[in-house]
Write a structure and sequence with these properties.
By secondary structure, the chain is an alpha/beta fold. It has helices at 13-20, 39-46, 62-75, 92-97, 121-129, 165-188, and strands spanning 2-8, 26-33, 50-53, 80-83, 102-106, 134-141, 151-158. Strands 3-2-1-4-5-6-7 form a 7-stranded mixed beta sheet, covered by helices on one side. The structure holds 5-O-phosphono-beta-D-ribofuranosylamine.
Length: 189
């Protein structure tokens, strides 16, 4: 089983999908958050998964924060990293150590509605205002850009019936919860 760390900043429903997925190729051994009260940390604790709160506020230098993150990952023999609603940039040093072993889930069909500032409901608001008939989710490898890494999996969903951006968010989230476990299984196999 490959040992996986999941980075969260919010509710962690994507983390929950990874936990709930019945599979034999990965184990979630660590959940890291930059938000002390992220519900994703609660979800991890309920499943006896080790958690770590690492944020800008408890480190004077970004470099110290990066070193602490790398130390925790290596102490836990982590092989793969999943960003599941994680809203901080991963330092280039960590991307280097975990080259082609970090994936991110983004709630749009990249290359549309992605990049700096496009996250969470901002994505769905832009999709709704543009009158799109389809949206979807993308899992991509993480490189030093924002949402620019090689695409691993993508799945679209019909949003023509949506009457507001929240309905789009819910339709896309359902796709995310299927796509992320599928993507993690594929890179861990
Ligand atoms: C999801 O929409 C994900 O695509 C985006 O942030 C949201 C995270 O949701 N990156 P959750 O914390 O996994 O519930």
């Amino acid at each position: 089983m490959k040992k996986v760390a999941v980075f969260v900043s919010g509710s962690g429903s994507n983390l929950q999908a990874l936990i709930d997925c019945n599979q034999e190729v990965y184990s979630i051994d660590l959940v890291i958050s930059n938000k002390e009260n992220a519900y994703g940390l609660e979800r991890a604790k309920k499943h006896n998964i080790k958690t770590k709160y690492i944020s800008k506020s408890n480190f004077s230098l970004d470099n110290e924060r990066m070193k602490e993150t790398l130390k925790v990952l290596q102490e836990n023999n982590i092989e793969y990293i999943v960003l599941a609603g994680y809203l901080n940039i991963i330092p280039k040093e960590i991307i280097e150590v975990y080259k082609n072993r970090i994936i991110n889930i983004h709630p749009s069909l990249i290359p549309k509605y992605c990049g700096m500032g496009f996250y969470g409901e901002k994505v769905h608001k832009a999709v709704f205002e543009a009158g799109e008939k389809v949206s979807g989710a993308t899992v991509h490898f993480v490189d030093n850009g924002v949402d620019t890494g090689e695409i691993l999996l993508q799945e679209q969903v019909d949003i023509s019936s949506a009457t507001n951006h929240n309905e789009i968010a819910n339709l896309v989230l359902e796709v995310e919860h299927k796509l992320l476990p599928k993507a993690l299984i594929s890179i861990c196999s």
